[in-house]
# Entry
Amino acid sequence: MLSLGRRVAFRTATIKRAARSVTIGCSASMATEAAGGKRRVLIVGGVAGGASCAARLRRMDEQAEITIFERGPYVSFANCGLPYFVGDVIKEQSSLLVANAAKFNKWFNVAVRESTEVVAIDRAAKTVTARDVTSGQESVHPYDYLVLSPGGNAIRPPLPGADLPGIFVVKTIPDANAIKAWVAEKNAKSAVVVGGGFIGLEMVENLVHRGLKCSLVEMLPQVMPPYDPEMVEPAHERLRAAGVDLHLGDGVAGFDRAPDGGLIVRTAGGKAHAADLVVLAIGVRPETTLARQAGLELGSRGGIRVDEHMRTSDAAIFAVGDAAEVKDFVTGEQTLIPLAGPANRQGRIVADVITGNEPSRFRGSQGTSVVGLFGLTLAATGASEKTLRRLGAAHQKVYLHINNHAGYYPGAKQIDIKLLFDPKDGRVLGMQSVGEEGVEKRVDVVAMAIQKGATVFDLEEAELCYAPQYGSAKDPVNMVGMVAANVVRGMHPLTTWDELDLQQLATDPGVVLVDVREPSELDKVGKVAGAVNMPLSGLRQQLAKLQDKDKKYYVYCQVGLRGYVATRQFLQNGFDAVNVSGGFKSFQQQLPDRSAKL
Amino acid sequence: MLSLGRRVAFRTATIKRAARSVTIGCSASMATEAAGGKRRVLIVGGVAGGASCAARLRRMDEQAEITIFERGPYVSFANCGLPYFVGDVIKEQSSLLVANAAKFNKWFNVAVRESTEVVAIDRAAKTVTARDVTSGQESVHPYDYLVLSPGGNAIRPPLPGADLPGIFVVKTIPDANAIKAWVAEKNAKSAVVVGGGFIGLEMVENLVHRGLKCSLVEMLPQVMPPYDPEMVEPAHERLRAAGVDLHLGDGVAGFDRAPDGGLIVRTAGGKAHAADLVVLAIGVRPETTLARQAGLELGSRGGIRVDEHMRTSDAAIFAVGDAAEVKDFVTGEQTLIPLAGPANRQGRIVADVITGNEPSRFRGSQGTSVVGLFGLTLAATGASEKTLRRLGAAHQKVYLHINNHAGYYPGAKQIDIKLLFDPKDGRVLGMQSVGEEGVEKRVDVVAMAIQKGATVFDLEEAELCYAPQYGSAKDPVNMVGMVAANVVRGMHPLTTWDELDLQQLATDPGVVLVDVREPSELDKVGKVAGAVNMPLSGLRQQLAKLQDKDKKYYVYCQVGLRGYVATRQFLQNGFDAVNVSGGFKSFQQQLPDRSAKL
# Structure
């Protein structure tokens, strides 16, 4: 703790120094501009934030001299499309090129220097040194404002064999082309993907789509690390159903070349997975080399520290995108959000700030995300339960398993929802959802709700589109809001399977687990061992005869609705009862191996 | 005006009398309850609001005596599914039955009297008279609280021949069965649907789906009357493409029997449309007979007047659903919203108010709606431009034509968006959208935004799900927010095709219409007659040479983006320029026959 304290003190000193030097720099720059000179803006990195910044800068200031340096060969490309390009879902590389240098020049009069890396910043002189990556030739460029949009680097772990041929990352078009070429040249039949996040899952799907036999190795016991584990259980099922060998909870220890010329991925758990191809998708590290060398302040998560105007510790230098550390809108924590949407918004904000258009601020990121996986969609916005637990933040959760549209219209699909909210005032903190249809729609609605500080009462009242092929008179967003609102109102005591004391349920005669489904359902889908069946259809009659008012009744049904109705009957008849959120469906998803234990 | 004034005065008097009688009634009721009696709640009409009210009442109060009277044979059914049941998309009638009397009884201990019509209310005695529609037998039932959820009646206009066999409405399951039976028995090959609203369009789609040749007759010059006309132009196209004879701007004058046994629909315009079947879908009239006879106050739109607790002018009587007049959340106007979602919410609110659970209020309705039509989706939330014009409310609009997801991912579809907002503070007033995919998702997000009083700046910043098959880094919601925000900021002068002075454009040399697309595009998709082509790619060079700084330049491109970029160049070079929202796409949709005029 002491060393951390010293480090913080040191950093504060650094900030102050930077601020001082900046003041001087700023004045100089303003003098330049005031003297009729044109604003000189240099942008390092063009992909998302840098390109957005350049385009808006030009719309705000026709006179500015704007230059983008991009170390890669393409100034702006759709890196979110790379896995689908590898999978031949996107056929043409040209589709990925959002804007080329010629367009930037013609539309925006922006000079683009591709394959040019900025290798040094001289903050005092306000210049950068750029190096042509082909010729190695260096040049010096003055700036009034410098915008750092260097992105992140795909992490290659320092493990034995990590640099063997056939081991790839997926961050750039050349990366994708290298994988495609390797698959074609080696006639690759199998792949190991390391890392079960967004890119890892998309790579698995696309490699399977190309006909490769895939293994997925993930160090954590779940895929999609930002999501809560029970919400990704359907993704695990979907991966296995697609023939993917899923190895969870086992990290990679190293790589070997196999006798047949293939690769072997060795795990910490002692396993060896052979494949013709390995894709590393274990994350992105913010590219901060340039910023660090220039003495810019970094944040606690290792990204470039910026204020709400995306200004670094040097007031003439801004940072946006994957390399910038931003505030989590919900938790207030510092965070790194390697997503295109926030990067684009940040680029625009910087353009506004530089041109003095308005006091444009980045309000933080909610981490809204979505991934498609073999027909399944997983999406989330706001804080996860694990984040809230880690922060010790008060939270309550409800689960919902519900049709994406009216059940009476053909083709309804179940979606699973987990909503996190403040138990005191009902403020929505986060939502995760999984299913085949209509998943990201509900997450988008709740993303807007969170942005506007909405409560579960607002979700309850939301007026959303309803026709039977699109939704329900009570949309899933309404339903999850209603359940949560009743919890906040105190009329719906609710618990979750993971909070139940299994030991107590099995041994304590004062605690009763009640299954209120009809006997035919139990026969069909199973029940939780040890539960007493008291079907809702006859519950009133049973309660009239039930004597044990000093026992505690945990009530569940199939998805939670009847459990709620039953719980109200218990409570109003003087029994102490709690509904188990999400019912048997949640039990199956959260505790697939638990039935035997009860 | 004088007579209206008198009427208002009279009504006020009525309210006061009602309030007095209510006070007494209330005390009596409370006395009953206080004396250990059970709350007796009678509900008139079960379909949506009544059923929701009953279920929640029971969850709040296990002791209450709850009875639902439903004049139809089914206490609660999915009336939004009726057109699809006629079309055999929904195969089984049983699918439409949301809950039957047995379930209401078993789950909720609610007595359900189907095929029983309440024919009179004695407010002083606090009783209703109910009549068994089969036997005609009447019975009297006391209440502490009465909930009116009578719904609406499908309008049968008082026109000659309107009662001829073969002319149907679509409001109940028996209505739908009658249509199905007629089609089968008469081997019907053709139909005329009268009315182009939600039900009319859904009936056309479903009758076509059954193989009938359909004509659609609509009095207004557009289908979907709540929507602005230019936004439903794609629906007109889609109807014609599906082989529907579309007759707009022509009302029905009467009906005749044809010599061959079929029907003839005669229009005000002198046309005669023959068909084997006629469906009247010209709207719903709130069922207020009972309320009127009981002396309950009606609202300015003809519905039952209620306060924000859904209480009528008699404090022991509530009204919900299609028959209740509510407040428009955006405009503050009184309105009738015959939609299931608001009805359900209102039913729940009444249950809360009766049981004293909390000060539950209905916050008004936004009129969020959606309809599917031969693969096209039309959706809207908030106020339309025509409503805002009628009210004289300040508003600005922008059009957007944009891909539903990243264009680089296969299968992107264009969606058209119209956003209405307050030009002063940017508050979002309404949005309409049409397209094949992802339409209602964006409307739902904006519905939540409007509910929370969001501005276009909030839409600009929204953090929504992005992966290439779901959306874009700048989602359509962001994009329309960005365009509108730039308008509010004053950096993007914008007009729309309908606001352009055609005459001036054609005759005034001081006004120039500039097309900034590339020449190849103009050759391919056409241009607006009289426009000067100044491609964006070379605009800077042209502007440097352009002298006419005292002219006004109206700029357009294909969808509006390049028009914006070009407008900024014009402005910053000292020219007076305005972008035309939505570009050539909007021109085509809004003014399909206008090209020749310019």
Remarks:
- Residues 1-35, 594-598 of chain B have pLDDT under 50 and may be disordered.
